[in-house]
Amino acid sequence: MLDRVRVVLVNTSHPGNIGGAARAMKNMGLTQLVLVDPERYPDPNAVARASGADDVLEQAHVVATLEEAIADCVLVMGTSARDRRIPWPVVDPREAAEKVMDQLGDDDSAQIALVFGREDSGLTSDELQRCQFHVHIPSNPEFSSLNLAAAVQVVAYELRMLSLQRQGQPTKMHKLETTNRQNEIPATAQELERYYEHLQQVLVEIGFLDPEKPRQLMPRLRRLYGRVRINQVEMNILRGILTETQKAIGVQATGERRR
Amino acid sequence: MLDRVRVVLVNTSHPGNIGGAARAMKNMGLTQLVLVDPERYPDPNAVARASGADDVLEQAHVVATLEEAIADCVLVMGTSARDRRIPWPVVDPREAAEKVMDQLGDDDSAQIALVFGREDSGLTSDELQRCQFHVHIPSNPEFSSLNLAAAVQVVAYELRMLSLQRQGQPTKMHKLETTNRQNEIPATAQELERYYEHLQQVLVEIGFLDPEKPRQLMPRLRRLYGRVRINQVEMNILRGILTETQKAIGVQATGERRR
């Protein structure tokens, strides 16, 4: 669906920012880039900063006016850093993503534009009035102007987050899936109990725990290990450490203890 | 609270990215930057890309090792683009922000580090193992590596969003507050009805609406205007247009109609 969302950059001064925007777009799964009257384009700096998002740059449309860039769009959102006299519906990037995804879902052919202004002066009042919504990134009021590619990154990130969520896809890698299944299986209560028994035994053997004056040592250790949800692999490691400790201090580990 | 969150950049190759990261930080209200063994720093490219976040650069600490950079931190989060063999708790940037804000809230003196790796190869396995959590930005699996400053921007943005929300502050500008109150006051049902009467009259006068065959014209117009929640100022404009239309076609507006 995100292929129906275009990023429109108006009168960009620095070609490096065009490249940075293209990279941010591709990182977030956006592909449609429209450049309205860029100052310098094509330019090797755009390619350098795109860092491999060359396909987004190559497919970019260069047009003369914002009007052309958004002509077929049913939803146009313009980013705005400054407070303006004309009141207008303002959304933050998260709300903007909701409006975009809602529109894409409601209308199978909807084309949508996210419009970003000039590095130094943003969008003009006339340009902002062509947008149904103004997107404001909640920046530090004393230092509010984001780099152009950074602004594209934030809005595209919110779109991707919501798009993944609505598709029921995870927003993060599932590292566990790629690894040994034993890393995923938590230790059972019984295994934990056997570990605590073994641990207590070793603490006595090394002279750290006095059975006559146990204080709160074992409860504290239980609390610690209980918090971390030990898995099978970790359990084996911890038991192994205890056994090796016993060997090192010359205690014969019994079958009972190592059960 | 965000002054207790430091951004740690490890072995950064391009000083421009250090500047870009500093700008993104200041935009989002972060100030503490720590550079672990940067390749070229200080450097004029860092200052250029910081675009006014010079104070963040000037206060940046340069240290030799990651260990030094995070020594006093109770929570260390490292960004990771790649899937790794060692399973580790992975969070997306939104969850990372929650963990950071929770920790800041629970512990008044907590220092927290957000660690970002090298442009080409990220953080090493050893470095990632010094982090309690790995932050993964949900990027396009086929083009997953964000620009360093863009990654800082995304994580800092999530922190600022959550920080504003928890403080009960708006995440967007309130443009309406700065403008004429009349723009905020919606038109009443009665005012709308008078407008529809006036509109219908004018549509008849200009010959667009045939009272004998009204079709669905007025219901359609009511639906349209009903959707947009017209305010007082807009109402006055719309009524003014009707009156001027009547003048232009030579109809004397009556007191009744303009009530």
From TrEMBL, chains A, B:
Domain of life the protein comes from: Bacteria
Protein name in the entry: tRNA (cytidine/uridine-2'-O-)-methyltransferase TrmJ
GO biological process, any: tRNA nucleoside ribose methylation
Organism annotation: Halopseudomonas xinjiangensis
Catalytic activity: cytidine(32) in tRNA + S-adenosyl-L-methionine = 2'-O-methylcytidine(32) in tRNA + S-adenosyl-L-homocysteine + H(+); uridine(32) in tRNA + S-adenosyl-L-methionine = 2'-O-methyluridine(32) in tRNA + S-adenosyl-L-homocysteine + H(+)
CDD domains the UniProt entry points to: SpoU-like_TrmJ (cd18093)
One GO term describing the cellular component: cytosol
InterPro entries: Alpha/beta_knot_MTases, RNA_MeTrfase_TrmJ/LasT, SpoU_MeTrfase, tRNA_m1G_MTases_N
Protein's job: Catalyzes the formation of 2'O-methylated cytidine (Cm32) or 2'O-methylated uridine (Um32) at position 32 in tRNA.
Family, per entry: Belongs to the class IV-like SAM-binding methyltransferase superfamily. RNA methyltransferase TrmH family.
Group of enzyme by EC: transferase
